[in-house]
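Write out structure tokens for HTH-type transcriptional regulator MtrR.
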Amino acid sequence: MAEAPAQDRGARSRDAILDSAGELMSRYGYAATSISMISAECGLPASSIYWHFGSKDGIYVAVLERARTALLTALPPAEVPGADVAERLDAFLAEVQRAFHRQPHGLKLLLGLGMVQQDASAAAVAEVHHYRDALVAWTRDALSAVFRLHDRPQVADELARFTLRMASGTVVARWFDPSAVMDTGALHVALLALAAHHDVLVHGTSGEGSRSRDVTDRE
């Protein structure tokens, strides 16, 4: 009967280490976060940290895995509701904003610059790329639904990567100003303009109405 409590204590210790490591690495970056800093933050000895994760890189990979799982789980289905492009785009950006605020540390870890340093392992780099690929896929599917781009995957992919670059820019801004927020209004306009560049319909739901070049009149 003593085994289960021991397992529970082990799980709690592991979670405490990951909580502290995630907080520190999102604040200072991978290279500047030491085992001693993590130990001081979580209140557990370095020996316990090494027992659970083996190395600093093992902690980093586990932190990234947890951040990726939490962030992707929090994302809504890619099918975006709304009667027209404007409504669907507003709904999509509202979800992006909510995800951004729910997982600030995870986004810093997974989108921020300088997180993967030269001394991080191939496993850590692969985890970041795995996350980014999954996020690009979700964003591409969502924007494909917003703009009805199911037959134009390259355009949907361009819109998705542009959106994520904007999100990354906000993450970087937060290094200097923690109160910085994503400007979804500007992103709304920019996405419509980028869609206009590709002659994508922005009015109606089935190809009826004006083309996206009319968006300037609408705004």
